[in-house]
């Protein structure tokens, strides 16, 4: 089915609400979408040079993912002597050696409807949710999460316990985007549609949300989300977690500080040398 025709079918069955339940054409449309997502032919968001953020959201894809939850029934999914229960429309994906995806033993799971490209390394235990897109050569390290519809670029390293937030509703909301060659440090969290541009580095413990101001110590600017734009980390920025003192009221009296991520430099040869361990691990 052509993508345009698939979009029309998904939008029609999603608009039908509960009436789509037990509809064979609705299930067929969903399964076609799930297959297209897993092959990478369809994405929840995709690069678009003409878009304000340089990314275009495809709301109909999110509608299709939500349609899958509506159509699915709870089913036991035994695995390795354990029993799991989930919607039968979203079983765990299975990979063959020919797929070129390295899934190290130890409890990782990739949900149906997620795209995982050749050369991706999955270190246990990690989780990739439906609608996510993980591009070539990325590493998803132990205890890392790639949420629904999150977009992960080529050669990204999501370090241990990093959390890349997902979003399904509202359907027009931008997912989190991590562009090519980004290093996300351990215990980082990127949420609420934030975009991390190509080559950026987030030091361990950095948390970014739509409401987080980002202090650029190099340019002297404060980067914030707006009504039209999410928080955007500039290309090659090196971001570290910081703090700023509360200067009034009880906060000042008690000597409190608030979390404040800061750009301390922009990536250079020295920073690149510190990330060459990536290649050895692959």
Automatic annotation (TrEMBL):
E.C. no: 2.3.1.117
Catalytic class of the enzyme: transferase
Cited Pfam families: Hexapep_2, THDPS_N_2
Alphabetic keyword roster: Acyltransferase, Transferase
Superkingdom, natural source: Bacteria
UniProt keyword Transferase present: yes
Gene3D superfamilies, alphabetized: Hexapeptide repeat proteins, Tetrahydrodipicolinate-N-succinyltransferase, N-terminal domain
GO molecular function: 2,3,4,5-tetrahydropyridine-2,6-dicarboxylate N-succinyltransferase activity
Database matches in InterPro entries: Hexapep, THP_succinylTrfase_dom1, THP_succinylTrfase_N_sf, Trans_hexapeptide_repeat, Trimer_LpxA-like_sf
Domain Tetrahydrodipicolinate-N-succinyltransferase chain A: residue ranges: 5-71
Stated family: Belongs to the transferase hexapeptide repeat family.
UniProt cross-references to PANTHER family, sorted A to Z: 2,3,4,5-TETRAHYDROPYRIDINE-2,6-DICARBOXYLATE N-ACETYLTRANSFERASE, ACETYLTRANSFERASE
Protein name (Swiss-Prot/TrEMBL): 2,3,4,5-tetrahydropyridine-2,6-dicarboxylate N-succinyltransferase
Organism of provenance: Candidatus Sulfuritelmatomonas gaucii
Chain's gene name: dapD
